[in-house]
Amino acid sequence: MMVPFYHRVADSHPNPWTISRARFARHVDHCLQHLQPRSLADVQQLVRQGNCRQPTVTFTFDDGYAENCDFALPLLLEKQIPCTYFVTLSNLIHQQPFSHDRQRGCPLPVNNLRQIRELADVGIEIGLHSRDHIDFSTVNCAAELDLQIGQARTELEQRLGHPVRQFAFPFGMPRQLTAAAIAAVDRAGLHGFSSAFGGYNLPGRDAFHLRRFHGDCDFNRFRNWISFDPRKVRSEPTIRYQRIAEGPRAADPAPIAAPPLSPSAAIIQLPGATP
C-alpha cells in the first residue's frame, strides 16, 4: 500500500516542499492508472488482514497550506481519491505562516479554520500534525508531548466538528519517532501515526505505523516508489515502541470514500468554476 505525502501544490514561490500543479496532476494520473485509491483506514485494515489483492494509494498532505485548496484538493475530490490532510493546530488558529517559510523570507498563507471545516465536510479526512510543528527528537517531557498531541487533538476535534483519528510527525524521520512520542499518540486514542522517511505498508506489518514516501518532483523517482522497489524495504529503519493495547481501536472508522465536491464548499472550487 502506497502513501505519498506532499506539502504544497502551487506554481508560485517554489521551494523544496512545493510541487507544481502539472507535476502533481501527473502523479495523480499515474497512480490512477496503476493503483486503487483507498483511505488510510482501508490501508490499516488491509495491513492487519495480511492480504491485499491490488496495490493501493492514499494521498496525504502535511502542514496546511491555503493554496492546496486552489488546485490539489479539488483535483483529488473530482477524481474520488481519498486524502488525509494533516494540519498544524497553532498555525491554523493564529493564522501564522510556518517558521520554515519565514526563515526563507517567504511567508506563505496557511489554511484557516473555515477552509478546514469545509474540507472535512466534503470528504477530506483531517489529521493532526502536532500543535506547534515541533521536532519531537528534542522533547522527552510527557506533559509537553501530551500538549502537542493529545490536547491538540481534542482542541482540533472541537473546532472542526469532526473526529481526528490520524497523526503525522513533523519531519517524520526515525529520530523524531521516539518511543515516548509514539506512546503519547497511543495515549491520545489516535488510530495511527505517519512517518515520512520512506516506506511501504506491507500486509502483515504493524498497522499503527503508516509509512509514507515523498511525492517527489522528479517523476522517475516517484515512479520507482510507486512500482515497488524491494531494495527500499531492505533498507528501511526499524522503529521500536510498545503500545498500550495492540490491535485496532474499538471505534475504528468504516472505510472512508471521498464524496463529490459539495456545491457549498465555495473555497475549494474546481479550476475554472465560479464561486
Q: How does this structure look, described?
A:
The chain has one domain: TIM Barrel, CATH 3.20.20. It has helices spanning 21-34, 40-49, 72-78, 89-94, 99-103, 113-121, 142-160, 179-187, 219-226, 230-234; strands at residues 4-6, 8-9, 18-19, 36-37, 56-57, 59-61, 83-87, 125-128, 166-168, 192-194, 209-210, 213-214. It is an alpha/beta fold. Helices cover 33% and strands 12% of the residues. Residues 252-275 have low confidence and may be disordered. The radius of gyration is 17 Å and the shape is globular. It contains 10 helices and 12 strands. The protein has a 5-stranded parallel beta sheet. The chain has a 3-stranded parallel beta sheet with strand order 9-10-11, sandwiched between helices. The chain has a two-stranded parallel sheet with strand order 2-3. The N and C termini lie far apart (36 Å).
Helix vs. strand class: alpha/beta
**Helical run tally:** 10
| Structural shape | globular
Helix coverage percent: 25-40%
Radius of gyration: 17 Å
